[in-house]
Amino acid sequence: MTIANIMVAVDLGAHARDRVRLAAHLADDFQGRLIGVAAEMPDYSWAPAGPTPGGAYGYPSIQEAVLDDLKQAHAAFQEATAGCSRTEWRSKLEYPSAFLTSQAAVADLMVLGRGRDGNSYLTVDPGEILMCLGLPVLVVPPSVDHLDVKRVAVGWKNTREARRAVRDALPFLKRAAEAVVVAVDDGRGSDDTRDVLAFLQAHDVYATSVRTEAQGIGAAEALVDAAAECGADLIVTGAYGHGRLREWVFGGVTRNLLVGSPVCCLMSH
Questions:
Q1: Which residues contact 204 (CB under 8 A, 6 or more apart)?
Q2: Beta-carbon count within 10 A of 85 CB
Q3: Contact, 13 vs 117, CB < 8 A?
Q4: CA distances for 230 relative to 37, 110, 162, 209, 250, angstroms
């Protein structure tokens, strides 16, 4: 089991190059192809209308500015992937989330940043993308440019999303020295880990399990703490098991990991 095509979202934010470098390293590790994608929709709302010089030249100048942004994103991608064996670039005048979703059929994995960083017209909301892609999403925190996958922490609840995340993460889990299945008790008990351990061991993944209590902190924080204790550089978890709207209104594991995890998170919905 491998990853043949990795797609990475590129913007003009301060951490975009680090994210692309990480994706490039992964593509080379899996002997796959890296596809950079960027999109921006021109904002014509402020352009003057009518038979005026501003109206005549406003629309082309706005479009030219967007094309320049995409050229800069392409240049950043080329710089960050120097030495990467197989790359491809795709860009378009389009809304970023819609464009990424339309291109996702070719990808095994999508690599994203946390969200609003730099030019907001070029960036995507990882929570929104998670809901519509149908792909595993690797969310990279700021200033992280490499992922060794030495140890993986698997946040476990016996849900559809978590089961899918474990299967989607198998290419990473099989490369790791150890996977630690973390069952967090948030006051309502923790799910049995025996079946998921058996599943991982059947796929030649060395896996152990731990149980941890939230103890007044959120389940996401408890999972991050457990990952830190076992030295994990990757967290695997299902995303939005209770629905995205409920999570963003009332808080939830997915939202809190997207906002604050210090290590990469591989998520599936």
A1: 174
A2: 12
A3: yes
A4: 34, 26, 20, 11, 29
Q: With contact defined as beta carbons under 8 Å apart, do 17 and 44 qualify?
A: no
Cα pseudo-dihedral 182, 186, 189, 193, rounded to 10: -10
| Strand 109-112 with 87-92, pairing | unpaired
Measure CA 88 to chain center. 19
Looking up tokens 């950079």 gives 36
Q: Rounded to the nearest 5 degrees, what angle is found at the Cα of 35, between the Cα atoms of 154 and 137?
A: 20
Residue with the bigger pLDDT between 16 and 245: it is 16
pLDDT of amino acid 57: 54
Query: Is this prediction's pTM over 0.70?
Result: yes
SS3 (DSSP) at 7: strand
Cβ-count burial 24-42 (b if 16+ within 10 Å, e if not): bbbbbbbebbbbbbbbbeb
